[in-house]
Amino acid sequence: MPAVSFQAVSKAFATPKGPLQALDQVSLDIEEGEFFGLLGPNGAGKTTLISILAGLARASSGRALVQGCDVQTEFAAARRKLGVVPQELVFDPFFNVRESLRIQSGYFGVRNNGAWIDELLENLGLADRAGANMRQLSGGMKRRMLVAQALVHKPPIIVLDEPTAGVDVELRQTLWHFVARLNREGHTVLLTTHYLDEAEALCGRIAMLKSGRIVALDRTSVLLQEASGSVLQFKTDSALPPALARLARVTGRVVQLPAHDTVDIEGHLAALRTAGVELHDLEIRRPDLEDVFLQVMSGAHASRPAAAAAAVEGQA
Ligand SMILES: Nc1ncnc2c1ncn2[C@@H]1O[C@H](COP(=O)(O)OP(=O)(O)OP(=O)(O)O)[C@@H](O)[C@H]1O
């Protein structure tokens, strides 16, 4: 039985401009013990899908199951199996850190788990703030607390919705170290993030959503292998010729240019030389997950989600 199963999940929101299709027939199984990444640009539907899983939003059609429990008809059982770390910081300001965790445990019917609460506080760098009132915590500390709250009932499935947005390097490392350990111990992890290097490093399998549909679904290693061509990367202080500027991914001085083949690379280099662009730290590398993501979103990547592939093969 999959840890998480989305079965033809669709969701339309009523808006003043008419219905907005946030999710369109999303089908996806996440197996026990997977570290699964759900990626997509802003507005792709990631949070909506997670909200449906957590029972915070209702699917317009289709259904979601957590270890076989329907999130609508068996809400309490499904919810107990999930530890959801939400994007937004919402807290009860009247309690201290340890009290909040005890209350959250009680909410899930879990008692006498002081040892686990201590372990959470220790592993998330909150031990010396255990007596602090929630109001006194910094933003980063509050985020650690969100993680602790989500894990307090030792859920088999951990759902992290952009857990590292606005988080410092130290907390990122603490968090990933801890979540990777829980995954090794058998917990299933579902992660959404805009940090594709994190997804590449952590996730065994990845689904990419675009406008509410799955547009890629595969093992991370396969997505990387199927990415076409290579990337010409260099640093420069000069402006790029317009034709290359349109193709390039530019981050400050770092320029990354996708290239299909060696002829393409030679063409790029010739155009740069003609334009008098001075290149530093030039390298040619394999595409990384960010390149794959951009290829998938532009429709250029070879990967097809299984359902779409089966439909095409069925027509043949
Ligand atoms: N309550 C709502 N009412 C109307 N539209 C909504 C509502 N919630 C989400 N949407 C819309 O549904 C679409 C999907 O939003 P969602 O928050 O799921 O995207 P996301 O992939 O999580 O994006 P981000 O990366 O920005 O967090 C967007 O177009 C969004 O504007």
From TrEMBL:
Residue span(s) of domain ABC transporter: 4-236
Superkingdom of origin organism: Bacteria
A Pfam family it matches: ABC_tran
Keyword Transport attached: yes
SUPFAM superfamilies found in the cross-reference section: P-loop containing nucleoside triphosphate hydrolases (SSF52540)
Keyword Transmembrane: no
Alphabetical keyword list: ATP-binding, Cell membrane, Membrane, Nucleotide-binding, Transport
Protein name: ABC transporter ATP-binding protein
Lineage: Bacteria, Pseudomonadati, Pseudomonadota, Betaproteobacteria, Burkholderiales
